[in-house]
Amino acid sequence: MVTPDSRPLWHGRTLALVGIVLLAFSLRSAVASLSPVLDHVAQDFPVPEWVVGLIGTAPPVCFAIFGVLTPQFERRLGLERLVVIALAVATIGMVARGLAVDGLTLLGSTALIFAAVGTGNVLLPPLVKKYFPDRVGLMTAVFSTTMAVATFLPPLVAVPISDAAGWRTSLALWAVFAGVALIPWIGLTVRARSAARSEADDDDEPRPDVFRRMWRLPLAWALMASFAVSGIIAYTSFAWLPTILVDIAGVDPATAGALLSLFAGMGLPASLLVPVLVARFRIVRSLYAVAVAAGFVSIAGLLFAPAAAPWLWVALLGIAPLLFPLVLVMLGLRTRTHDATIALSGFVQSVGYAITAVFPLTVGLLHAGSGGWTSSLWLLAAVVAAAIPAGVVAARPHTVEDEWERRHGSWA
Fold first, then answer.
1. Domain range for residue 114?
2. Rounded to two decimals, what is the model's pTM?
3. Quick one: signal sequence residues (predicted)?
Protein backbone atom coordinates (compact mmCIF):
# COMPACT_ATOMS: atom_id res chain seq x y z
CA MET A 1 0.00 0.00 0.00
CA VAL A 2 1.18 3.49 -0.84
CA THR A 3 0.76 5.84 2.08
CA PRO A 4 1.14 9.56 1.49
CA ASP A 5 3.47 11.58 3.67
CA SER A 6 1.79 12.55 6.91
CA ARG A 7 0.74 16.16 7.24
CA PRO A 8 -0.99 18.08 10.02
CA LEU A 9 -4.54 16.87 10.58
CA TRP A 10 -6.10 20.30 9.97
CA HIS A 11 -3.89 21.30 7.06
CA GLY A 12 -6.08 21.90 4.00
CA ARG A 13 -8.85 19.61 5.22
CA THR A 14 -10.59 21.33 8.11
CA LEU A 15 -13.86 21.26 6.18
CA ALA A 16 -13.58 17.49 5.70
CA LEU A 17 -12.80 16.91 9.39
CA VAL A 18 -15.80 18.95 10.53
CA GLY A 19 -17.99 17.35 7.87
CA ILE A 20 -17.07 13.78 8.87
CA VAL A 21 -17.72 14.46 12.56
CA LEU A 22 -21.11 16.08 11.90
CA LEU A 23 -22.06 13.30 9.48
CA ALA A 24 -21.20 10.61 12.03
CA PHE A 25 -23.16 12.39 14.75
CA SER A 26 -26.21 12.82 12.51
CA LEU A 27 -26.23 9.15 11.47
CA ARG A 28 -26.53 7.81 15.00
CA SER A 29 -28.60 10.54 16.68
CA ALA A 30 -31.25 10.00 13.99
CA VAL A 31 -31.55 6.34 14.96
CA ALA A 32 -31.39 6.64 18.76
CA SER A 33 -33.85 9.48 19.35
CA LEU A 34 -37.21 7.78 18.71
CA SER A 35 -37.62 4.80 21.05
CA PRO A 36 -37.34 6.79 24.33
CA VAL A 37 -40.38 8.96 23.43
CA LEU A 38 -42.67 6.34 21.86
CA ASP A 39 -44.89 6.42 24.94
CA HIS A 40 -45.28 10.19 24.50
CA VAL A 41 -46.16 9.69 20.83
CA ALA A 42 -48.77 7.09 21.79
CA GLN A 43 -50.59 9.69 23.87
CA ASP A 44 -51.39 11.64 20.67
CA PHE A 45 -52.22 8.76 18.32
CA PRO A 46 -52.15 4.95 18.44
CA VAL A 47 -48.83 3.28 17.63
CA PRO A 48 -49.68 -0.39 16.99
CA GLU A 49 -47.28 -3.06 18.17
CA TRP A 50 -46.59 -4.13 14.59
CA VAL A 51 -45.44 -0.57 13.82
CA VAL A 52 -43.13 -0.62 16.85
CA GLY A 53 -41.83 -4.01 15.72
CA LEU A 54 -41.14 -2.76 12.20
CA ILE A 55 -39.39 0.33 13.54
CA GLY A 56 -37.16 -1.95 15.61
CA THR A 57 -36.42 -4.17 12.61
CA ALA A 58 -35.96 -1.35 10.11
CA PRO A 59 -32.39 -0.26 10.93
CA PRO A 60 -30.49 -3.44 9.94
CA VAL A 61 -32.87 -4.10 7.02
CA CYS A 62 -32.45 -0.58 5.58
CA PHE A 63 -28.72 -0.68 6.25
CA ALA A 64 -28.47 -3.96 4.34
CA ILE A 65 -30.48 -2.73 1.35
CA PHE A 66 -28.66 0.57 1.04
CA GLY A 67 -25.32 -1.09 1.63
CA VAL A 68 -25.90 -2.79 -1.72
CA LEU A 69 -27.27 0.30 -3.47
CA THR A 70 -24.79 2.89 -2.22
CA PRO A 71 -21.82 1.82 -4.41
CA GLN A 72 -24.08 2.16 -7.46
CA PHE A 73 -25.31 5.59 -6.33
CA GLU A 74 -21.74 6.71 -5.69
CA ARG A 75 -20.61 5.77 -9.19
CA ARG A 76 -23.34 7.96 -10.65
CA LEU A 77 -23.22 10.89 -8.25
CA GLY A 78 -19.79 10.99 -6.68
CA LEU A 79 -18.85 10.68 -3.04
CA GLU A 80 -19.49 14.22 -1.81
CA ARG A 81 -22.71 14.76 -3.74
CA LEU A 82 -24.13 11.51 -2.38
CA VAL A 83 -23.29 12.62 1.18
CA VAL A 84 -25.22 15.84 0.57
CA ILE A 85 -28.23 13.89 -0.73
CA ALA A 86 -28.13 11.44 2.20
CA LEU A 87 -27.97 14.27 4.75
CA ALA A 88 -30.77 16.17 2.99
CA VAL A 89 -32.96 13.06 3.02
CA ALA A 90 -32.18 12.45 6.70
CA THR A 91 -33.04 16.06 7.54
CA ILE A 92 -36.36 15.85 5.70
CA GLY A 93 -37.11 12.51 7.35
CA MET A 94 -36.44 13.82 10.86
CA VAL A 95 -38.64 16.86 10.30
CA ALA A 96 -41.37 14.63 8.83
CA ARG A 97 -41.12 12.30 11.83
CA GLY A 98 -41.72 15.25 14.13
CA LEU A 99 -44.84 16.06 12.07
CA ALA A 100 -46.19 12.48 11.99
CA VAL A 101 -49.96 12.18 12.38
CA ASP A 102 -50.35 8.42 12.75
CA GLY A 103 -48.41 5.18 12.99
CA LEU A 104 -47.93 4.86 9.23
CA THR A 105 -46.44 8.32 8.77
CA LEU A 106 -44.20 7.69 11.78
CA LEU A 107 -43.03 4.43 10.22
CA GLY A 108 -42.58 5.93 6.74
CA SER A 109 -40.53 8.89 7.94
CA THR A 110 -38.41 6.61 10.10
CA ALA A 111 -37.74 4.30 7.15
CA LEU A 112 -36.68 7.35 5.11
CA ILE A 113 -34.21 8.30 7.84
CA PHE A 114 -32.80 4.78 8.03
CA ALA A 115 -32.33 4.69 4.25
CA ALA A 116 -30.21 7.84 4.47
CA VAL A 117 -28.32 6.47 7.46
CA GLY A 118 -27.62 3.20 5.61
CA THR A 119 -26.06 5.20 2.78
CA GLY A 120 -24.03 7.33 5.16
CA ASN A 121 -22.73 4.27 7.01
CA VAL A 122 -21.16 2.96 3.80
CA LEU A 123 -19.69 6.34 2.84
CA LEU A 124 -17.83 7.13 6.07
CA PRO A 125 -14.85 4.75 5.61
CA PRO A 126 -14.24 5.87 1.97
CA LEU A 127 -14.47 9.51 3.07
CA VAL A 128 -11.74 8.90 5.65
CA LYS A 129 -9.69 7.03 3.05
CA LYS A 130 -10.01 9.92 0.58
CA TYR A 131 -9.40 12.91 2.82
CA PHE A 132 -7.20 11.38 5.53
CA PRO A 133 -5.18 8.54 3.94
CA ASP A 134 -2.34 9.31 6.37
CA ARG A 135 -4.64 9.31 9.43
CA VAL A 136 -7.02 6.40 8.77
CA GLY A 137 -6.77 5.03 12.32
CA LEU A 138 -7.13 8.38 14.05
CA MET A 139 -10.05 9.54 11.91
CA THR A 140 -11.83 6.20 12.23
CA ALA A 141 -11.47 6.58 16.00
CA VAL A 142 -12.88 10.11 15.74
CA PHE A 143 -15.98 9.16 13.77
CA SER A 144 -16.66 5.85 15.55
CA THR A 145 -16.40 7.60 18.93
CA THR A 146 -18.70 10.33 17.67
CA MET A 147 -21.16 7.64 16.64
CA ALA A 148 -20.93 6.04 20.08
CA VAL A 149 -21.61 9.37 21.79
CA ALA A 150 -24.49 10.07 19.42
CA THR A 151 -25.98 6.68 20.30
CA PHE A 152 -26.29 7.22 24.06
CA LEU A 153 -26.82 11.01 24.12
CA PRO A 154 -30.35 11.16 22.57
CA PRO A 155 -31.88 8.68 25.05
CA LEU A 156 -30.53 10.83 27.91
CA VAL A 157 -32.16 14.06 26.72
CA ALA A 158 -35.10 12.90 24.58
CA VAL A 159 -37.56 12.46 27.44
CA PRO A 160 -36.71 15.71 29.28
CA ILE A 161 -37.04 17.65 26.01
CA SER A 162 -40.29 15.85 25.25
CA ASP A 163 -41.65 16.68 28.72
CA ALA A 164 -40.68 20.32 28.35
CA ALA A 165 -41.48 21.03 24.69
CA GLY A 166 -43.38 18.00 23.36
CA TRP A 167 -42.33 14.87 21.53
CA ARG A 168 -42.49 16.56 18.12
CA THR A 169 -39.80 19.03 19.15
CA SER A 170 -37.78 16.22 20.73
CA LEU A 171 -37.76 14.26 17.46
CA ALA A 172 -37.39 17.14 15.00
CA LEU A 173 -34.59 18.77 17.01
CA TRP A 174 -32.02 16.30 15.66
CA ALA A 175 -32.71 17.53 12.12
CA VAL A 176 -30.78 20.67 13.08
CA PHE A 177 -27.53 18.70 13.33
CA ALA A 178 -28.09 17.02 9.96
CA GLY A 179 -28.91 20.39 8.43
CA VAL A 180 -25.74 21.94 9.84
CA ALA A 181 -23.75 18.94 8.55
CA LEU A 182 -24.90 19.84 5.03
CA ILE A 183 -22.88 23.07 5.08
CA PRO A 184 -19.34 21.61 4.93
CA TRP A 185 -20.41 18.89 2.50
CA ILE A 186 -21.92 21.39 0.07
CA GLY A 187 -18.60 23.22 0.15
CA LEU A 188 -16.66 19.98 -0.37
CA THR A 189 -18.96 19.02 -3.25
CA VAL A 190 -18.27 22.31 -5.02
CA ARG A 191 -14.55 21.84 -4.44
CA ALA A 192 -14.62 18.23 -5.70
CA ARG A 193 -16.46 19.22 -8.90
CA SER A 194 -13.96 22.00 -9.57
CA ALA A 195 -11.06 19.60 -9.03
CA ALA A 196 -12.64 17.02 -11.34
CA ARG A 197 -13.02 19.59 -14.12
CA SER A 198 -9.39 20.66 -13.78
CA GLU A 199 -7.98 17.12 -14.06
CA ALA A 200 -6.95 16.09 -17.53
CA ASP A 201 -6.65 12.40 -16.67
CA ASP A 202 -8.72 10.11 -14.54
CA ASP A 203 -6.65 7.07 -13.67
CA ASP A 204 -9.23 5.85 -11.14
CA GLU A 205 -12.23 5.46 -13.42
CA PRO A 206 -15.15 3.92 -11.52
CA ARG A 207 -15.63 0.23 -12.27
CA PRO A 208 -19.17 -1.13 -11.96
CA ASP A 209 -17.95 -4.70 -11.42
CA VAL A 210 -15.88 -4.03 -8.28
CA PHE A 211 -18.75 -4.74 -5.87
CA ARG A 212 -19.34 -8.13 -7.53
CA ARG A 213 -15.69 -9.01 -7.04
CA MET A 214 -16.09 -8.82 -3.28
CA TRP A 215 -18.24 -11.96 -3.31
CA ARG A 216 -15.20 -13.92 -4.53
CA LEU A 217 -12.65 -12.69 -2.00
CA PRO A 218 -12.04 -14.45 1.36
CA LEU A 219 -10.82 -11.17 2.89
CA ALA A 220 -14.14 -9.48 2.11
CA TRP A 221 -16.04 -12.41 3.62
CA ALA A 222 -13.82 -12.37 6.72
CA LEU A 223 -14.48 -8.68 7.34
CA MET A 224 -18.20 -9.18 6.68
CA ALA A 225 -18.33 -12.09 9.17
CA SER A 226 -16.54 -9.97 11.79
CA PHE A 227 -18.97 -7.11 11.22
CA ALA A 228 -21.92 -9.52 11.50
CA VAL A 229 -20.62 -10.99 14.77
CA SER A 230 -20.41 -7.51 16.27
CA GLY A 231 -23.85 -6.55 14.96
CA ILE A 232 -25.52 -9.75 16.16
CA ILE A 233 -24.16 -9.34 19.69
CA ALA A 234 -25.15 -5.67 19.81
CA TYR A 235 -28.64 -5.88 18.33
CA THR A 236 -29.52 -9.09 20.19
CA SER A 237 -28.33 -7.56 23.46
CA PHE A 238 -30.31 -4.36 22.96
CA ALA A 239 -33.40 -6.45 22.19
CA TRP A 240 -33.14 -9.19 24.81
CA LEU A 241 -30.36 -8.66 27.38
CA PRO A 242 -32.53 -6.95 30.06
CA THR A 243 -35.12 -9.74 29.81
CA ILE A 244 -32.40 -12.42 29.93
CA LEU A 245 -30.88 -10.86 33.05
CA VAL A 246 -34.23 -10.58 34.82
CA ASP A 247 -35.07 -14.20 34.01
CA ILE A 248 -31.77 -15.94 34.75
CA ALA A 249 -29.69 -13.59 36.93
CA GLY A 250 -32.45 -12.55 39.33
CA VAL A 251 -31.95 -8.80 38.86
CA ASP A 252 -34.82 -6.32 38.92
CA PRO A 253 -35.84 -4.43 35.76
CA ALA A 254 -34.14 -1.20 36.87
CA THR A 255 -30.85 -3.01 37.42
CA ALA A 256 -31.25 -4.79 34.08
CA GLY A 257 -31.62 -1.40 32.41
CA ALA A 258 -28.48 -0.13 34.12
CA LEU A 259 -26.62 -3.24 32.97
CA LEU A 260 -27.73 -2.59 29.39
CA SER A 261 -26.27 0.91 29.72
CA LEU A 262 -23.03 -0.69 30.92
CA PHE A 263 -23.05 -2.93 27.84
CA ALA A 264 -23.48 0.11 25.57
CA GLY A 265 -20.88 2.14 27.46
CA MET A 266 -18.19 -0.46 26.87
CA GLY A 267 -18.25 0.53 23.21
CA LEU A 268 -16.92 4.03 23.89
CA PRO A 269 -13.34 3.12 24.92
CA ALA A 270 -13.25 0.56 22.10
CA SER A 271 -14.23 3.24 19.59
CA LEU A 272 -11.44 5.48 20.89
CA LEU A 273 -8.66 2.93 21.09
CA VAL A 274 -9.20 0.14 18.59
CA PRO A 275 -8.80 2.09 15.30
CA VAL A 276 -5.58 3.75 16.51
CA LEU A 277 -4.16 0.45 17.79
CA VAL A 278 -4.92 -1.26 14.48
CA ALA A 279 -3.54 1.52 12.29
CA ARG A 280 -0.43 2.21 14.35
CA PHE A 281 0.55 -1.17 15.79
CA ARG A 282 -1.24 -3.63 13.46
CA ILE A 283 -2.31 -5.78 16.43
CA VAL A 284 -5.30 -7.22 14.60
CA ARG A 285 -4.90 -10.81 15.85
CA SER A 286 -4.62 -9.67 19.46
CA LEU A 287 -7.80 -7.61 19.24
CA TYR A 288 -9.69 -10.52 17.71
CA ALA A 289 -8.43 -12.70 20.56
CA VAL A 290 -9.64 -10.18 23.15
CA ALA A 291 -13.07 -9.95 21.52
CA VAL A 292 -13.49 -13.72 21.24
CA ALA A 293 -12.21 -14.44 24.76
CA ALA A 294 -14.46 -11.78 26.29
CA GLY A 295 -17.47 -13.11 24.39
CA PHE A 296 -16.86 -16.71 25.42
CA VAL A 297 -16.26 -15.90 29.10
CA SER A 298 -19.34 -13.67 29.22
CA ILE A 299 -21.64 -16.26 27.66
CA ALA A 300 -20.18 -19.02 29.84
CA GLY A 301 -20.89 -16.88 32.88
CA LEU A 302 -24.48 -16.30 31.79
CA LEU A 303 -24.93 -20.01 31.10
CA PHE A 304 -23.38 -21.49 34.24
CA ALA A 305 -23.31 -18.78 36.93
CA PRO A 306 -25.57 -15.94 35.81
CA ALA A 307 -26.29 -14.56 39.28
CA ALA A 308 -22.68 -14.74 40.50
CA ALA A 309 -21.39 -11.65 38.70
CA PRO A 310 -23.91 -10.24 36.21
CA TRP A 311 -22.04 -6.91 36.03
CA LEU A 312 -18.86 -8.73 34.99
CA TRP A 313 -20.64 -10.87 32.39
CA VAL A 314 -22.31 -7.83 30.84
CA ALA A 315 -19.08 -5.79 30.82
CA LEU A 316 -17.27 -8.64 29.05
CA LEU A 317 -20.11 -9.03 26.58
CA GLY A 318 -19.78 -5.31 25.82
CA ILE A 319 -16.12 -5.82 24.91
CA ALA A 320 -16.91 -8.35 22.15
CA PRO A 321 -18.36 -5.72 19.75
CA LEU A 322 -14.94 -4.05 19.54
CA LEU A 323 -14.97 -5.85 16.19
CA PHE A 324 -17.17 -2.99 14.91
CA PRO A 325 -14.55 -0.20 15.05
CA LEU A 326 -11.90 -2.76 14.09
CA VAL A 327 -13.70 -3.57 10.84
CA LEU A 328 -14.38 0.10 10.12
CA VAL A 329 -10.68 0.94 10.18
CA MET A 330 -9.83 -2.22 8.21
CA LEU A 331 -12.10 -1.08 5.38
CA GLY A 332 -9.54 1.64 4.70
CA LEU A 333 -6.42 -0.35 5.48
CA ARG A 334 -7.36 -3.40 3.41
CA THR A 335 -7.92 -1.49 0.14
CA ARG A 336 -5.70 0.50 -2.22
CA THR A 337 -8.23 2.23 -4.46
CA HIS A 338 -11.29 4.42 -3.93
CA ASP A 339 -13.64 2.05 -5.78
CA ALA A 340 -12.46 -0.91 -3.73
CA THR A 341 -13.06 0.97 -0.48
CA ILE A 342 -16.62 1.87 -1.52
CA ALA A 343 -17.34 -1.68 -2.73
CA LEU A 344 -15.82 -3.36 0.33
CA SER A 345 -17.71 -1.05 2.70
CA GLY A 346 -20.96 -1.71 0.83
CA PHE A 347 -20.44 -5.48 0.78
CA VAL A 348 -19.44 -5.79 4.43
CA GLN A 349 -22.27 -3.62 5.72
CA SER A 350 -25.05 -4.85 3.42
CA VAL A 351 -24.46 -8.57 3.95
CA GLY A 352 -23.46 -8.08 7.59
CA TYR A 353 -26.61 -6.15 8.47
CA ALA A 354 -28.78 -8.61 6.52
CA ILE A 355 -27.46 -11.45 8.69
CA THR A 356 -27.73 -9.35 11.83
CA ALA A 357 -31.39 -8.56 11.17
CA VAL A 358 -32.34 -12.23 11.49
CA PHE A 359 -30.85 -12.90 14.90
CA PRO A 360 -32.95 -10.89 17.39
CA LEU A 361 -36.04 -12.63 15.99
CA THR A 362 -34.29 -16.02 16.00
CA VAL A 363 -33.28 -15.60 19.64
CA GLY A 364 -36.85 -14.69 20.54
CA LEU A 365 -38.21 -17.74 18.71
CA LEU A 366 -35.72 -20.05 20.44
CA HIS A 367 -36.78 -18.64 23.79
CA ALA A 368 -40.46 -19.06 22.96
CA GLY A 369 -39.90 -22.65 21.81
CA SER A 370 -37.71 -23.77 24.70
CA GLY A 371 -39.09 -21.66 27.52
CA GLY A 372 -35.57 -20.67 28.58
CA TRP A 373 -32.45 -18.92 27.37
CA THR A 374 -29.91 -21.74 27.21
CA SER A 375 -30.29 -22.47 23.50
CA SER A 376 -30.19 -18.76 22.66
CA LEU A 377 -26.96 -18.28 24.62
CA TRP A 378 -25.36 -21.29 22.93
CA LEU A 379 -26.33 -19.75 19.60
CA LEU A 380 -24.53 -16.55 20.59
CA ALA A 381 -21.48 -18.62 21.57
CA ALA A 382 -21.48 -20.12 18.07
CA VAL A 383 -21.67 -16.60 16.63
CA VAL A 384 -18.63 -15.54 18.67
CA ALA A 385 -16.77 -18.65 17.45
CA ALA A 386 -17.30 -17.50 13.85
CA ALA A 387 -14.92 -14.60 14.55
CA ILE A 388 -11.99 -17.01 14.96
CA PRO A 389 -11.55 -18.07 11.30
CA ALA A 390 -12.58 -14.57 10.21
CA GLY A 391 -9.81 -13.10 12.32
CA VAL A 392 -7.21 -15.48 10.88
CA VAL A 393 -7.99 -14.26 7.36
CA ALA A 394 -8.51 -10.57 8.18
CA ALA A 395 -5.26 -10.29 10.13
CA ARG A 396 -3.10 -11.11 7.11
CA PRO A 397 -1.49 -7.86 5.90
CA HIS A 398 -2.91 -7.65 2.38
CA THR A 399 -5.58 -5.76 0.46
CA VAL A 400 -8.57 -6.97 -1.52
CA GLU A 401 -6.75 -5.85 -4.67
CA ASP A 402 -3.74 -8.01 -3.70
CA GLU A 403 -6.01 -10.98 -3.10
CA TRP A 404 -7.80 -10.54 -6.43
CA GLU A 405 -4.52 -10.29 -8.31
CA ARG A 406 -3.19 -13.49 -6.74
CA ARG A 407 -6.37 -15.39 -7.53
CA HIS A 408 -7.71 -13.85 -10.75
CA GLY A 409 -5.01 -11.73 -12.37
CA SER A 410 -4.77 -7.97 -12.80
CA TRP A 411 -7.14 -5.83 -10.71
CA ALA A 412 -7.49 -3.36 -13.56
1. 14-196
2. 0.88
3. none
